């Protein structure tokens, strides 16, 4: 029984590492400039090659004409009894490297005028040169042992056809030297350019690296819970908004400032929520304990009466009934206190959500007058003063909730001040706002609690005598209602003068209906 081995797992593909931004920029710039320089070099070489080729053609033509003139000027000319090399070898004034072919009725002969003397061409080389010319008087011919030549052919007089040529190596060497020089200069320039671009890009991207490092340090911090503060910032020198990269650093610093303030606000909200839960639990614990205690007392009295059976006397029945009634009354009072607390909390929650308001045209003066009348009936031992204008002050709001605000402020002044204190409720117009002030000449508010007076479950009992079992939500409800109306509420307190100021956006009264035209 044969078994086949399982194939080995293929090696994981190697992840290709992406180039950095600096490397990509350098490669892009240098490649683009190299492409431009290469195109310029090739164009320059082609242009110079064309110029040099034209110059070579002219030099070849001049050499052919000059050789032909010298050949005609020889005594006896070219008779065919001697060679062109023999005829022109002595005393010639022809350029070095000239390749010459002379053809007449008596034959064809060719010679090469080199640095070391005159060399006669072979018959095959002469035939190859002669056959190279078809229609164009210029031709490029490769001669064995001599090289490649640019040649020109023409008739001299009526007897001779002459073909003269010069080597193209001079043109090729010149073009090669030019291309080599351009190439060396290009490579050197690209190296210098790469170094300069690398330096400039590195310095330009330094703020971006600082941004990345700052963001990395911030990302490494635990931000999910606890008292968190972000102190990391991009240095000011690298957060200059005058350029794009510096603007990124400045934007990151602004973002970190916002995040830091948001985290601080979150921490304050968490602490406030913990305090709120603790205060709510404390406020609910007292009525719940009362309900439990009195319910147990009533059940115990009922159990004792049932265990006594027929031996219960009339006095015991009356005592048991009285205890039960007292217990039920206390249970009812505690439940009412709990109901009030829960309703206040529910109202605050709905106000935070923007609910519980029914807007309409509200006369603030009427609301203040009615609220003071109610407060005067509840606190006849205080002096109540009303200061309102004769004309109505109209605002857009919820009349019931605004009445609750004024009533809470008046109740606060009545409960936390001794008898005989003067409480003044006034209404005024300040530009586009309606101002309601509730002032008293009582002992004032302790400065230690004045800043937290509008927080939930806040109390000022340290400076004002506590005369009720309030929940500490009255002023927080007043602030929530005023804020929901787009207004503000503040307090200014000193011994002998405490003023609560409510500022509400006012609007003019609704226009009256037009009267019917006279008949």
Helix content: 40-55%
Low-confidence stretches: 75-82, 462-469, 508-519
Beta-strand percent range: 15-25%
CATH-defined fold name of the largest domain: Beta-Lactamase
Q: Name the CATH class of the largest domain.
A: Alpha Beta
Overall spatial form: rod-shaped
Largest sheet composition: 6 strands, antiparallel
Mean pLDDT: 76
Given helix and strand content, the structural type is: alpha+beta
Write the layout of secondary structure elements.
Layout: H1 21-72, H2 84-88, E1 98-104, E2 107-114, E3 117-120, H3 123-132, E4 138-143, E5 147-156, E6 160-167, H4 169-204, H5 206-219, H6 244-308, H7 314-352, E7 360-363, H8 364-378, E8 383-387, E9 394-397, H9 399-415, E10 422-430, E11 433-440, H10 447-450, H11 474-484, E12 488-494, E13 497-505
Parallel strand pairs: 8-10
Antiparallel strand pairs: 1-2, 1-6, 2-3, 4-5, 5-6, 7-9, 10-11, 11-13, 12-13
Task: Summarize this structure as a short list of keywords or feature phrases.
3 domains; single chain; Heat Shock Protein 90; disordered C terminus; alpha+beta; 519 residues; Beta-Lactamase; 6-stranded antiparallel sheet
Task: Tell me what the structure shows.
The chain has 519 residues and is an alpha+beta fold. Helices cover 52% and strands 17% of the residues. It contains eleven helices and 13 strands. Strands 3-2-1-6-5-4 form a six-stranded antiparallel beta sheet, with helices on both faces. The radius of gyration is 56 Å and the shape is rod-shaped.
């Amino acid at each position: 029984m044969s078994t086949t081995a399982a194939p080995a797992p293929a090696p994981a593909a190697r992840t290709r590492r992406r180039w950095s931004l600096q490397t990509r920029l350098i490669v892009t710039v240098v490649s683009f400039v190299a492409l431009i320089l290469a195109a310029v070099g090739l164009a320059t070489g082609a242009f110079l090659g064309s110029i040099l080729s034209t110059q070579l053609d002219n030099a070849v033509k001049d050499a052919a004409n000059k050789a032909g003139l010298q050949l005609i000027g020889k005594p006896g000319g070219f008779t065919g009894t001697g060679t062109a090399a023999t005829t022109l070898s002595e005393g010639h004034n022809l350029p070095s490297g000239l390749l010459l072919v002379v053809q007449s009725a008596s034959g064809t002969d060719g010679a090469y005028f080199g640095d070391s003397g005159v060399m006669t061409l072979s018959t095959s080389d002469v035939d190859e040169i002669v056959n190279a010319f078809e229609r164009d008087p210029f031709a490029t011919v490769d001669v064995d042992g001599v090289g490649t030549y640019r040649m020109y052919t023409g008739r001299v007089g009526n007897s001779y056809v002459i073909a003269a040529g010069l080597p193209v190596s001079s043109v090729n060497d010149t073009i090669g030297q030019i291309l080599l020089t351009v190439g060396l200069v290009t490579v050197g320039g690209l190296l210098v350019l790469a170094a300069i671009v690398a330096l400039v890009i590195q310095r330009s991207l330094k703020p971006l690296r600082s941004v990345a490092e700052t963001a990395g340090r911030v990302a490494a911090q635990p931000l999910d819970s606890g008292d968190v503060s972000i102190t990391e910032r991009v240095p000011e020198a690298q957060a200059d908004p005058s350029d794009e990269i510096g603007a990124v650093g400045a934007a990151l610093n602004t973002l970190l400032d916002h995040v830091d303030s948001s985290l601080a606000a979150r921490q304050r909200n968490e602490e406030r929520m913990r305090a709120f839960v603790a205060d709510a639990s404390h406020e609910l614990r007292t009525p719940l304990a009362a309900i439990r205690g009195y319910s147990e007392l009533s059940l115990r009295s009922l159990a004792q009466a049932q265990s006594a059976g027929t031996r219960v006397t009339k006095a015991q029945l009356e005592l048991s009934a009285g205890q039960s009634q007292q217990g039920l009354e206390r249970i009812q009072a505690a439940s009412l206190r709990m109901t009030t607390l829960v309703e206040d909390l529910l109202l605050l929650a709905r106000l935070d959500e923007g609910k519980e308001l029914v807007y309409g045209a509200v006369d603030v003066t009427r609301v203040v007058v009615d609220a003071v009348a109610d407060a005067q009936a509840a606190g006849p031992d205080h002096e109540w003063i009303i200061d309102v204008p004769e004309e109505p002050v109209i605002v857009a709001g919820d009349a019931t909730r605004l009445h609750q605000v004024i009533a809470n402020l008046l109740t606060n002044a009545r409960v936390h001040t001794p008898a005989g204190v003067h409480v003044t409720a006034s209404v005024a117009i300040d530009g586009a706002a309606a101002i309601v002030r509730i002032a008293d000449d009582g002992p004032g508010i302790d400065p230690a609690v004045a800043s937290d007076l509008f927080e939930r479950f806040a109390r000022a009992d340290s400076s004002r005598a506590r005369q009720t079992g309030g929940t500490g939500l009255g002023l927080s409800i007043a602030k929530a209602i005023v804020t929901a109306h787009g207004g503000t509420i503040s307090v200014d307190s000193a011994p002998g003068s405490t003023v609560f100021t409510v500022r509400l956006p006012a609007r003019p009264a609704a226009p009256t209906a037009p009267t019917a035209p006279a008949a």
